[in-house]
Amino acid sequence: MTTRGHAPLLPLLILLPSVLTAGGCATAPDMKQVIESSYEVRRPPEIIGADGRLSPRESRATLAEIRKRVASTDILERHAAVMELVGAAPLVKDNKATLLIDGPATYAAMFRAVAGARRYILFETFILRDDDVGRKLADELLRKRSEGVLVRLVYDSVGCIRTPGSFFERLRDGGIQVVEFNPVDPTQAGSRWRLTNRDHRKILVVDGRVAITGGVNISQEYSSRISGRGDDRPGKTAWRDTDVQIEGPAVAEFGKLFRDTWRRQGGPGPPEPASGPPHVERPDRNDLVRVVGSRPGDENRLTYVMYLAAFVYARNAIHITNSYFVPDTDTLDALIAAARRGVDVRIVLPSATDLPLTLYATRYHYTRLLEAGVKLYEHRSELLHAKTAVIDGVWSTVGSTNMDTWSFARNDEVNAVILSRDFAKQMEGMFARDLSDSREIRLEEWKRRPLFPRLHEWFGHQLRHWL
Questions:
Q1: Residue 96 phi, psi (nearest 5)
Q2: Is 200 a catalytic residue?
Q3: pLDDT digits (tens, 9 = 90+) for 286-305
Q4: Predicted pLDDT of residue 24
Q5: In this structure, what are the phi and psi dihedrals at residue 240, rounded to the nearest 5 degrees?
Q6: Catalytic residue (one of 96, 385, 412, 434)
Q7: For a Cys staple, 219 with which of 129, 152, 392, 445, CB 3.0–4.6 Å?
Q8: Which of the listed CATH numbers 3.30.870.10, 3.30.70.270, 3.90.1150.10, 3.40.50.12280 matches domain 31-94+286-466?
Q9: Active-site annotation holds for 256
């Protein structure tokens, strides 16, 4: 017996070969041309404030204020130029970014935001489980709907394939507007059926005043603290992930992404109510934020460009934490080039994963990275699921994007880029804690590993385009 929105397994197995053959990989942008073109840009980057677009003089002054607090770097103006060339959303000033270091911190922030909703709640997620965490969130959403708050939910069909249809029926019966993203069952998707295009985004927007995004799904697995000891149930592994909360004008950019998804998936109803009074400048809101949303078929592949350009322009340090690291040649070359020009490149990766073949494909690149001077670490406690980076002490990103083909070419993804020295210091502190809980991979020791793991790595590499 199948639940609502979930196709029987046998038809899927029959259809899978044709799906995989037709999926393909979207063509990546010519990054060499994009980088070269960025050096021809003389105007300051476009920056939006609470009262609209800043003048060129105001934009220069805003970046100059950030630049004087950090070591010399090209990542401010040059990275902005690249993102504008490929059509990304503008930088937005007067925001407050709060780092949510793990699942409990993220859930606490989510429930606070939901409890404070007065007009609307927009929620988009890959996984929403029918477990303690999922039911608690469902109860809160239903309570807010009973108070007259508009609640809209987009969930991914594959990500929620283990969640019974009755879970979502209860939400619908309670007045919540629910949309299943690209249903697995082709009879429900019609002409829109595309099994390989998944909604991997995690976005919560409340009243246009607060947004939360990152890698945390709604599942009991994320309920442990970063010590890895918060979930001591037998057979349960703690998952470590990271989100960020944004308050300020940049929240509107997350709303735009949600509304675009809602429209494309045929979501019902009129626009949500007005957000309330306009944003005002506050002394604790001085973070520049760019919201980077990417979709399959988008020839510019914005999250891919975001990462690659950041690696190219880094001068001092690139510190990455990523759960599924299967980079393409250009990404690999950019990291190696950065290390060879003296940039401190360190990458924290998982030592265990829910996708073993992906871990083997990740390790396939270790030798080349280590020989170039990149420092690699494997996290020892929780199942590492975070997708974050901090570069040159001023550029940070937190989001849903893994460094693999699924994220760069097939999924709907979203990352927040934060330009802020203070936020970067928080990111560096988190990165330092991850390093202390990780084992460094040494080149000579790595070269002595047995033959059998090498064969696994080679095999995983052959399937890299489907990992």
A1: -120, 120
A2: yes
A3: 899 999 999 987 566 899 99
A4: 44
A5: -105, 120
A6: 385
A7: 129
A8: 3.30.870.10
A9: no
